[in-house]
Amino acid sequence: CNKTIGIDSKDLSYKDKHWHEACFLCNKCRVSLVDKQFGSKLEKIFCGNCYDAQFASRCDGCGQIFKAGTKKMEYKTRQWHEPCFACCVCKTAIGTKSFIPREQEIYCATCYEEKFATRCVKCNKIITSGGVTYKNEPWHRECFTCTNCSTSLAGQRFTSRDEKPYCAECFGELFAKRCTACSKPITGIGGTRFISFEDRHWHNDCFICASCKTSLVGRGFITDAEDIICPECAKQKLM
């Protein structure tokens, strides 16, 4: 009130400021603060409720204020009551356990793995280390096997058919062309070269004259029934 406090009046003081007993009121709700807890802000005094409502920090979980003596959990610029600092999925309180933040949410380690960890496309279990990528999809090394014989393909030569992986041996047996000379599969794996003529196929090493066994790769040749022969041997047969 800015009036003099007489010697017969009770003088209430706080931080070099003085009030009549009747003037010592909350700046907002005007309740008397005599013999009550109060707080000050911007050189004004407030009762506990008004101070908390306007100035106290609030929990990022429940939005309620932190009362005096309340344990506060903090991470970067955010803060929570201890029970509110919980996994957003299972609602278990984090406490002092490890957690993973993601897009403003907090996850316990177990729920984070369940929701975001890389999973094998074959068994759907989490890949914790290592693994193999095939066609941009993750596999456990032990799950990345030949479709036919189940042999592990990790670190091995393989090829695919209809989006399924096969070891070289199974692919050759199941799908590859077969050499007219040796009847073994022509896989093409590892840069294997072969010759095709009409409906017949040969490994490069098998493409030889039926008579003199000379390689015909890159040379002219003549068919003799089911055989192929070099021009020289063909001339001799005509003589």
From TrEMBL:
<dbReference type="InterPro" id="IPR001781">
    <property type="entry name" value="Znf_LIM"/>
</dbReference>
<keyword id="KW-0440">LIM domain</keyword>
<protein>
    <recommendedName>
        <fullName>LIM zinc-binding domain-containing protein</fullName>
    </recommendedName>
</protein>
<dbReference type="GO" id="GO:0008270">
    <property type="term" value="F:zinc ion binding"/>
</dbReference>
<keyword id="KW-0863">Zinc-finger</keyword>
<dbReference type="Pfam" id="PF00412">
    <property type="entry name" value="LIM"/>
</dbReference>
<dbReference type="GO" id="GO:0005634">
    <property type="term" value="C:nucleus"/>
</dbReference>
<dbReference type="GO" id="GO:0003712">
    <property type="term" value="F:transcription coregulator activity"/>
</dbReference>
<feature type="domain" description="LIM zinc-binding">
    <location>
        <begin position="1"/>
        <end position="56"/>
    </location>
</feature>
<feature type="domain" description="LIM zinc-binding">
    <location>
        <begin position="118"/>
        <end position="177"/>
    </location>
</feature>
<keyword id="KW-0862">Zinc</keyword>
<keyword id="KW-0479">Metal-binding</keyword>
<feature type="domain" description="LIM zinc-binding">
    <location>
        <begin position="57"/>
        <end position="117"/>
    </location>
</feature>
<keyword id="KW-0677">Repeat</keyword>
<dbReference type="GO" id="GO:0030018">
    <property type="term" value="C:Z disc"/>
</dbReference>
<feature type="domain" description="LIM zinc-binding">
    <location>
        <begin position="180"/>
        <end position="239"/>
    </location>
</feature>
